[in-house]
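thread: overnight batch results

M.L. [08:02]
morning all. the overnight job finished for the chain we discussed friday. pasting input first so we're all looking at the same thing
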Amino acid sequence: MKVILAAGNMRQKQGLSDTIPQTVKQEAILLNQAELVFGEVIKGYDPYPVSIEVQPTDICNQRCNYCFHGGIGFGKDRDTSRYLSESQIKNLIANLAELRIREYSISGGGEPFLSRNISTFITEARLRNLNIRIVTNGNFIPNDLLADIVNCVEIRFSLDTVNPETYSIIRNVDPLLLSSTLVNIRSVVEEKKRQSADILIGASFITNPHNQGEIIQFADVLLGKIGVDKVIFKRDIYGRYIPDSQRDGVERSLSIVKSNWGEAVEIRTQLDKFKTGLPCVIPHFKSAINPYGDLYSCCLGAQPNEINGYHMGNLADDLNNDDINAFDVAWKNSSSIRQQMLREVKCTDCNFTDRQINGYFSQFFSINK
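M.L. [08:03]
and the structure it wrote out:
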């Protein structure tokens, strides 16, 4: 495949931020940087990522049936002794701040709040004035971190339902765990009010055959009774979706919640078919670092046992050296990988936002096979 960069006037094209919903703060920031990032890449530069996702742990207490892990989860076989240490985490965050990478997402292949160093990931980033986004299942929210959490930019709770029985079926956990999770979400909402904080509090719902009749209830409870700011309805990127016979009912329910709640609802249930081989610019938007210090081209690639994405080096050893910027070293050493990704990618799938970004970016290329 031969790829030729096209030097067109980007402002004459429809802006990416006009084509993708922006109700989620962190993703809005990524999309609003699109023109700048595309322009630098097209000119042959290798800009640092707009955002970095750090994954504090790859251990999770849940076994969600749609998960990257295939519903089997991880835990006992993980070598936690190889996780980044507290001092390495501090150096990593200092590295990002030094390079002016200010958008910082705490998420990943496990539940972040199971990490023994989660407070370091949050408080150190706050000290460095990074814009922090957290994605969590909400099962474990320490009260002593509430004040720091609500001074982040965003927190998103992955829920999928407000019914204990459905929660248990989808996530393979005790149904009573949902009750304590909803209490935790209320605590964050109340702390936000107490501090008059600007954090966006969201809750996500991945549609599947078990919860497809609960869409309206989910929005009404989370937005109306608990008081979160946004709910996001999504589909599983691997295609395990509602049967065709039930899809019309799902679309009607989504239409109702959108009518009832307006901009407080974001709907991402329709995904274009993934096209293999297209150029990929995602490392410049949001690269990811797993608990062991491995740098990946995207948050999907950093998931345990994931076949998609590109490995771009490991930072762990260099993070022991205060005299160098470990992230800068890894980024420069992996430039050839990103050049390869601009020619052709091996990936077989991609998440919603990354897929949309790459689809938009491809218009600036002439692709000849």
